[in-house]
Amino acid sequence: MKTSSCASCLLRSKAVDNLAEQELSVLGESCVEAVFEKGETIFKQDALSSNIIYLQTGLVKLLVKGPQRTQILRLKKAPCYLGVPTTMGDKINHYSAVAIERTTACFIDINTFKELIRINPDFSYEIIIELCRNELEQFNRCVKLVQNQVFGRLATHLLDLSTHIYQSDQFDLPLNRSEIADLVCSSRETVSRLLSDLAKEEIIKVDGKHLEILDKNRLQQISEKG
DNA sequence: GCATTAACCACAG
DNA sequence: CTGTGGTTAATGC
User: Which run of H or of E encompasses A155?
Assistant: First the structure.
């Protein structure tokens, strides 16, 4: 088994930047790097989890099995940690993570991670910050989902893809229509229709999975007012 | 009542 | 896998 050299890693997290040389080598010894192709599962709901995942590159969707259908909790883009709540908070995963782009992930042994949290406050601080930001994002998403109409929910997520994930007005949708529906809590048909409607209004341009945002202001209005 | 919203079904590229 | 049309139920003037 090859051990990773976290000391020389260019993609390491801000938290890991705070580790001393000796801590870095401890981390490296308990850390394994793996590549996931689009569609491959990184970890699975209900399975035992004994690792914290750090995403170096790529894009991932988090899924939960609901009573009716599978819900997409959210998308997560590298660099970020995955599974801290689900691994620290319980023995099993409460959700699955599936790569939706080619993704490189480091698997960190939970005991090593806990030990680093314990001995290095600057490391812990960065982890807490990331967890807190996550929680705030989740709260916002929750309110949007519950109080906005589908139009607004879809618009919000298109803007999110554009500004936070791809940093461009043009990108290829990483999900099919049905998955977008699972993300915005709607049906596949409605997503199809709304995308064509937005295209008719010349707010966006759609060609299969390719999407271009033409009128960001109007999309923002729709996103806010629903 | 009448309009709007959005889900479900069905069927065709 | 997608786009559209018809139908239907819930909700709001």
Answer: helix A150-160
Q: How far apart are CA A225 and CA A149, in angstroms?
A: 9
Residue with tokens 């930047």: A17
Identify which of A79, A45, A78 has the alpha carbon closest to the alpha carbon of residue A62: A45
Instruction: Please name each of the domains of chain A with its CATH number.
Output: 2-133 (2.60.120.10), 146-225 (1.10.10.10)
Nucleotide nearest to A189 (CA to C1'): C3
Cα gap A130→A140, rounded to integer Å: 16
At residue A118 the predicted structure's pLDDT band, cuts being 50, 70 and 90, is very high
Bridge partners of residue A81, in order along the sequence = A54
Integer distance in angstroms from CA A76 to C1' C5? 36
Q: What is the pLDDT of residue A109?
A: 94
Separation in Å: B1 C1' and A177 CA: 36
